[in-house]
Write a structure and sequence with these properties.
Four copies of one chain form a homotetramer. Chain A is an alpha/beta fold and 385 residues long. Chain A has one domain (10-310, 341-374): TIM Barrel (Alpha-Beta Barrel), CATH 3.20.20. Chain A contains 14 helices and ten strands. Chain A has helices at 3-9, 38-52, 72-82, 110-130, 151-168, 194-204, 223-232, 258-270, 291-311, 314-322, 326-338, 342-351, 358-365, 367-374; strands at residues 14-15, 57-62, 86-92, 134-137, 142-143, 174-178, 188-189, 208-213, 236-241, 279-282. Chain A is globular, with a radius of gyration of 21 Å. Chains in contact: A-B, A-C, A-D, B-C, B-D, C-D. At the A-C interface, helix 5, helix 6, helix 7, helix 8 and helix 10 of A face helix 5, helix 6, helix 7, helix 8 and helix 10 of C. Chains A, B, C, D: This is L-rhamnose isomerase. Chains A, B, C, D: It holds the Pfam family AP_endonuc_2. Chains A, B, C, D: Residues 70-244 form the Xylose isomerase-like TIM barrel domain.
């Protein structure tokens, strides 16, 4: 496959919640024109796909995207399809009910665990209705104080819940287990690192895979190494892309450390992860910048990192590595990174019938003004925290 | 002054907002019985002081504690006094209006800067009414993306606002400038570290002092060194105590690293900072634990660290240091740290006419049940984010 | 088993290299009286055991402790036995030959890999001779620059070497695989985290176990969580104890964060890891402090943390955890931590026929003066870097 | 000044010690052809300048570059001049004598402090002889254990020594004070952060300036913010460039995070720091890669970051910032960063009469082979740790 063909084939899933409001514990700044319904989120996502050509699916977050009625989700899927989209991963949410103050599937109280499990099962039901392949599980479960709960028993409870959900998965469905170092729990998280997620997925089976959120690591963690390891073990299910300078800042992917994103994409390409088995998803917060152009920019940043990764001269690299030529091997990698791939991507877009400059095209489209004018009243979508 | 006398003389200011609800961007878990008014916060604070004897003042946060009427704040001060309390530092809040999305006193738009400055001036007005000595300034100002704004111009704007406020301070009033590494801004904060706060305070004059929030540093920062430096420079105005395992977790002070708290208190004692010129304030979030007993525990943790710091055999320490006896000097410090000071503090409390076990006394008092029963309806206090 | 019985049964292995000189890349400060031979290291270790009663074994480091002759290691073992010691883990060293500049078992050149493997095999030969149970493997392997070598191929090479060594292990022998985030490699380490070590050990089999060096993690890592996970998975082989404020500082265990050490020991006790299957080893550098008393102090620090962990009221803790009593559960843990266990340990020592104060006893023994006087000339032991 | 003119005017000082061997505490890998004398270091530095055109000066490190004889340093300066170079900053070394185990200018023993001060004075003598402008002071001073020494008294001792040296400075000479978070001291460093260096320099006077080593910060520190602050305060004396993934890794500048280097250079340009008053120096270790081409590459990396910083459309940026256009302002910055400036720099080099590809030119020159062949015997230069 040529570089251009690969770039044309790329698919970046955008998250429904990134079109809604988000913020920090200090303040959520509402933005005019923000969607009020799952359908309006899809309308916005359709603009991202229209201008980039590589954002064909949208991840849902339950209950933020809950629809009602017997055929609610099927109807939502049809709504997406009409706009050239499909529904992607279903993201469970077991962190926003008052019951979950001390955990969900790891809560000391079995009644709360049952409630959380029921929600996870509901998410699989929704997958059946939407045709989604991936169930994305991120647990905010953890403790704030040493001694607060038994760290090990919580693992047992977690394992029990995961096994029940895994059992429930249908044909062609997968479970993606996410890890996170901290926040909202501040002493320990029940799934804090890739090792924990990996250990659980390994016991569950092939359809349990680890998802890497690029903002969920300790300072200094070499994320591309984790990518290489998980690919080697056949356990990389996908990414939640974003970027960070400090913690889980959830900035636009590629904004904080574009070189890291490139290295990560290089390991994806090198490890055979560039294809449908690894889901490339965004998971970001656009706290202060307008959401749709920020998501377009994010998709473009992923494309640019991918293009550079694809441009690495693998033969020259392998030769230099074989020779122990430290500077030479590094130079091969840097040559690709230092290339300005924006003209190449402009060409790819034009060959796909798109405007070479998606941001400018979006600006010209009038969509931003239109949603501000039309989306008046109602309740803007947000995290509901 | 004997150790016991010093412990009796200690004063830890509790923050009004710690009695209200708080949480993370993921969820604020409401707790039953939480205050709905500044007066109810003072009622709760009075219980903390009643049981510990060393929490005589309460910091206010404007607008969260805004009261109306010509004599509103004077009346609130009187309300506090009736309960054996006084009003402490006034905390300005220029981060929760929609106008402040891109900053307050450093905002590119002069109109927003004027609005923010007006709020700071209002806070000094309130100090006049409450008799508060300290204006505590923490700015959430910063940027999320490189290039978003001009880092240096923002310093100029900050300096201008600080100078105007400093000028407005009355007799016996001080400005305490707080710094924070990150959150809610994720690329740069306008006052990210003690060096920045120090540089501004130095230009302003003697009544501008730096306040150290123990959760606002980069991983690995030696906070007690900063304490020693600021005391040496005559620029330590106070503390916002809390503790953290990761970032600005705002856990109970002493919960995450009691040894660090001890070292910090040792530098305070050693540097002559144990007295009224350095304000010892809590600034914590009790996201999942009941608030009043958590604050009592926090006050006790500060007392225990202080007691240990006071117990350090300074002469033996100096001798070992002079001799270059690394292990011996360290052992002197550790001897104090390893001492169980709870019996000593129980004695101190009994001598003050208090129950030796404040947490148990609070439990027995029935206050927790009473506020749950009585504080029904209304809007619980919280950050209002 | 009572707390006292448990404390009497504890065994902390001291590392031969901690008796020799060590330092940083900036300077190794030589100390008078430092051993020049493996035998002299054992002489010093015997003093630690004599005064503490719980340091009965000594880890060797090959080639730093290489002895020659057909029966060299058997003779060394006999030498140890005469002094009341036994030889413990064999630590392989594949990082100090010029050949290892770009790696050892992961080096791109198969000849270097063969050489490294041969050394590992030699270490198992030594184990046969010394009767050691554990082969401790720490690899400095990694890269300094992105692209320098193929991260994934290096995993394959690593797996191949580990499999060969595992195959070679005799009856009752184990392989302990250590991980480390960084240093001496500064872009990636081939075994950077517990997940990687775990994944390799899992494939190898039951006798491959992970060893946790407490200084080898990213900032913010919850080490006791890793302990709990590895115990749950049956994969915790042992510890390399030390402490750190920043990176792999290799300070005396318990010196930087005694509360962390306590939490870690609590998870060990709670997870059934307090026994012979988990090796408790020190791995420290005494760059500026005298080595023998520093090691005595380190052993005592482990004892104190263990004592506190054993004193946790497990029933009260479980009850509070079951009730979701955050503050109550934390208080149970803190009660144990805040206890001054030095009197209890003094009693234990007296019951073992030891001086209650090992440091003072060592000081009085005259050993320090004796080795300074006697160990004149020759080459002091050190890392040989 | 045009971008090209600015690039032609740039000067990057290379450090004599980077031409010698270096390593970690685990191993120093010697490289063939490494210089044995200060003169040979200058020979190598001349090659870097010959191929890059922008590395005209070489920093010395005393005692590593000590020469003897009445006119030793004048002769060395003449030697440099003959090769188109000049001698740059004099770097004092008060960390490698056995006396300095517990500190140099902050040592508890006044005799050691006097010795250290005498060395600093000697360095100013050397500056007089070499014509160097800058005295670079980095102190390894600090402690490894809490309580080991009195943190505050050490500040007093430091201040006293700095004042004495400052007093001694001649016309046109400056003192550059460097800070470092940790290593080799692991509990506290006496000058750990820019705030401390700034506070001391402020008291000393205009000719005391802070030097920023890019590897000396806590994780997450925004270094370009510090640059902006120091420029605003008139206190930025220079840089020690290198890069790091973890701690003070001392990798080639720009190798770990080229985007950070660009942001830093942007603040330099924006703050008026691009000129002779700010010294741009490298301070790196080439532990595994050949030294001369690594230094050439490093110089080129600085050039590329500088070129991108110069290409930022300042007017467009200011307009977007003024409008609060977060995405637009960020895009202006990223446009410059994403530009491939290698063709521009190739042009600049050709206009300077240089080969457009300095690395290739060096490779072709035969110098690498020649020094391997000729520099046989003797003692290779290194840190002498």
């Amino acid at each position: 496959m040529t570089v251009k063909a690969a770039l044309r084939s790329q698919a970046v899933e955008t998250p429904s919640w990134a079109y809604g409001n988000s913020g920090t514990r200090f303040k959520v700044f509402a933005q005019p024109g923000v969607p009020r319904t799952p359908q309006e989120k899809l309308d916005d996502a359709a603009r991202v796909h229209e201008h980039t050509g590589v954002a064909p699916s949208v991840a849902l977050h339950i209950p933020w995207d809950r629809v009602t009625g017997a055929d609610g989700y099927a109807a939502l899927a049809a709504y997406a399809k009409e706009r050239g989209l499909r529904l992607g991963a279903i993201n469970a949410n077991v962190f926003q009910d008052d019951d979950y103050k001390l955990g969900s599937v790891t809560h000391p109280d079995p009644a709360v665990r049952r409630k959380a499990l029921a929600h996870l099962m509901e998410c699989v039901d929704i997958m059946d209705a939407t045709g989604s392949r991936d169930l994305k599980l991120w647990f905010s479960d953890g403790t704030n104080y040493p001694g607060q709960d038994d760290v090990r028993e919580r693992q047992d409870r977690l394992a029990e819940a995961l096994a029940a959900v895994y059992e429930r998965l249908g044909e062609g469905q997968r479970m993606l287990l996410e890890y996170k170092l901290f926040e909202p729990a501040f002493y320990h998280m029940d799934v804090p690192d890739w090792g924990t997620a990996y250990a659980h997925c390994l016991r569950l089976g092939d359809r349990a895979q680890v998802v890497v959120d690029t903002g969920h690591h300790a300072p200094g963690t070499n994320i591309e190494f984790i990518v290489a390891m998980l690919l080697r073990e056949g356990k990389l299910g996908g990414f939640d892309f974003n970027s960070r300078f400090y913690a889980d800042d959830d900035l636009m992917v590629g904004a904080a450390d574009p070189f890291q994103l490139f290295r990560l994409m290089y390991e994806v390409v090198r490890g055979g992860g560039f294809g449908p088995d690894v889901a490339f998803m965004l998971d970001q917060c656009h706290n202060i910048e307008p959401k749709i152009p920020a998501i377009i920019r994010s998709v473009m940043n992923v494309q640019e990192a991918t293009a550079k990764a694809l441009l690495v001269d693998r033969e020259a690299l392998a030769a230099a590595q074989r020779d122990g030529d430290v500077l030479g091997a590094n130079a091969v990698l840097m040559d690709a990174y230092n290339t300005d791939v924006r003209p190449l991507l402009a060409e790819v877009r034009e060959e796909m019938g798109l405007d070479p400059d998606p941001v400018a095209a979006y600006r010209r489209s009038g969509w931003a003004e239109r949603i501000v004018a039309e989306r008046v009243g109602g309740t803007q979508a947000g995290w509901g925290a």
